[in-house]
Design brief:
The chain has three helices and five strands, in the order βββαβαβα. It is of the alpha/beta class and 71 residues long.
Length: 71
Amino acid sequence: MILDYMLGKTNGLDILQKACQVDHEVRIIMMSGYQSDDLPKRAKELGASGFLPKPFLMQELLNVVGKSRKR
């Protein structure tokens, strides 16, 4: 799953946490244009297999997806 942080009334961390509780095998890559040093760390703690700051290049996305698949 590729999940953005900003999602209107909720945020991607809430969705990430719920998704990981429902399916422990789900692989989620978070992305965000919101600049925070804590956000990538928090996403990883909650179960994200990767994090991409926006904007990103397609090759960066492919690299993170590839690493996630090897997990």
